[in-house]
Inverse folding.
């Protein structure tokens, strides 16, 4: 069986970046162990459905509030900066400049928190922190 190499990259809410590499015989059990480690590092999104989650969001910086909105309303779908701005203003009842939201989204892409693509001349974003996208790069090498 050829040697395989798996690399998992993730970022936490503070902007710290973690890289975990594994080389050898990749099995389901070993992959699940690696994903457990990712969860221990805080890489798997948590469900914030309790009533106090909006109150906690109001104590955050604008950058963190933007990330909170994205995690809550766009966990699996592509969205635009305009859509993020609209939801931000509706949810938090405070104004947000489109340029500020766009800057934050760009920073989140740079930190590996979001992925970006261009669709019909417009930029679209999506969370990169869902469990299925945690395995950012998987390379198969023949040894």
């Amino acid at each position: 069986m050829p040697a395989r190499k798996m690399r998992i990259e993730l970022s936490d809410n503070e902007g710290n970046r973690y890289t975990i590499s594994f080389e050898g015989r990749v099995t389901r059990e070993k992959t699940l162990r690696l994903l457990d480690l990712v969860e221990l590092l805080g890489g798997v999104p948590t469900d914030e459905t309790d009533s106090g989650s909006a109150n906690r969001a109001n104590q955050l910086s604008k950058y963190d509030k933007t990330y909170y909105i994205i995690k809550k309303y766009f966990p699996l779908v592509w969205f635009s900066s305009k859509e993020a701005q609209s939801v931000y203003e509706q949810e938090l009842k405070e104004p947000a400049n489109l340029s500020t939201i766009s800057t934050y989204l760009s920073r989140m892409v740079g930190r590996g928190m979001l992925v970006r693509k261009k669709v019909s001349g417009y930029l679209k974003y999506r969370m990169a922190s869902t469990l299925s996208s945690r395995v950012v790069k998987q390379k198969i090498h023949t040894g």
Observations:
- Helices lie at 28-40, 53-57, 62-73, 81-92, 98-110.
- Residues 34 and 40 are 10 Å apart (CA to CA).
- The radius of gyration is 17 Å.
- The first helix runs from residue 28 to 40.
